[in-house]
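Escalated from tier 1: F0G holo job.
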Amino acid sequence: IKYIPEPFRIKMVERIKMLTREERIERIKEAKYNTFNLKGEDVYIDLLTDSGTNAMSDEQWAGIMRGDEAYAGGKSYYKLVDTVKDIFGYEYVQPVHQGRAAEKVLFPLLLEKGKVGISNMFFDTTRAHVELTGAKAIDCVVEEAKDPTHRAPFKGNMDVEKLEKLINEYGKEKIGLVVMTITNNSAGGQPVSVQNMRDVSVVCKKYNIPLVIDAARFAENAHFVKQREEEFKNSTLKEITREIFSYGDMFIMSAKKDALTNMGGLLAIKEDAELFQLVKGNTISFEGFITYGGLSGRDIEALAIGLQECLDEGYLNYRVGQIEYLGSILDDNGIAYQSPAGGHGLFVDAKAMFPHIPYYEFPGQALAIELYIEAGIRTCDIGSYMLGNDPETGKQRQADFEFTRLAIARRVYTQAHFDIMAEALIAIKNRAKDVKGYRITWEPPVLRHFQAHLEPV
Ligand code: F0G
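Tier 2 regenerated the structure:
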């Protein structure tokens, strides 16, 4: 397919450098084979995450100058609150410094030991914050998400039948919350349909369980709904967003993704004033006063502007189009990935590329290491390495997928960079049988993949 041209021109540039292959082999060894330990300056194309890596617009940079740094009641805060109310239709809005801060503020108010949280799929920090309260986190994504080659329009959806079964199994009073992650990051940036939101909300209402939207990539999700859900083909992305959020009771958001900023987060509640009072208490303890929530006024200003910019259809066609372009080259070369292409990246099926590496030797991590050695591309594992050990048994868990995620920063890389990504993957595929697995030599107890040390098997 054709590459959709950038709907912007470049006004400022940042130099990047390419090390030699020998230097890269040395650097990744020094980093204990953990891509999070690499220095940014030793990376040529950084696909570690789409979080906080976005290029801001001239409008956002102008907003940075206008940011109001008042400790309490700043102008930028009110602008953000009005913007959030306008786009999402929720009454109570709390800025926080990033997504996991919203999780830390909210989850202890809904969960405790003995309780259960169910999600279409928890992202690793949301899972960690559920488990930190002592509660159990259960994923409940549709079965079709588990087959990377099966192309379905909404592979991020919740399996609603299974959800209801789980609620009955544990008892409804045990279920502290249901989380809908849009798009479903860990399943490959796959979207959730409006119909699925409706069905999940009916179940949550029936059993009186709060429905939380984890909204980091809400705009990409709205784009997919417009493309793929007949009922919404003539709706604006803002109308679709309103519709989706009308089914939730509250949302948490890492604003470092779709909202096109480098730092920021949000927590919003549709109508529960009592819960919002508790949220404000936790925010003051953990984040800062309620009108800045751990952010500078300038960050809040950039966020308010980014929330409007990200719902532009031309931008999203280009953004998602870049990833579909890369996917089409991989299709031509027989490289499997979670298909169709996701909203914020391509999740390459490392299990298919390295059938000889078992899950406990981390095929997704092996491919991440090879991409760095091959072309200075930094990625990460979304598989058993990221999933970690079972908190009850301490045993390595087997993930449903073994992906290597090529997460694409917004408005940052051009077509030539995408061609390099494709060439690197093709080169690795051609020598796949010689690639070896890895074992962990040291790991911390929580969120180990960020810090662990590895060595080749
Ligand atoms: N929820 C989802 C769905 C996420 O993807 C992330 C972060 C978070 C919550 C936490 O937000 O980083 O602002 O604290 N995902 C990043 C990623 C880190 O690379 O996918 P945060």
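The chain has a mean pLDDT of 97.
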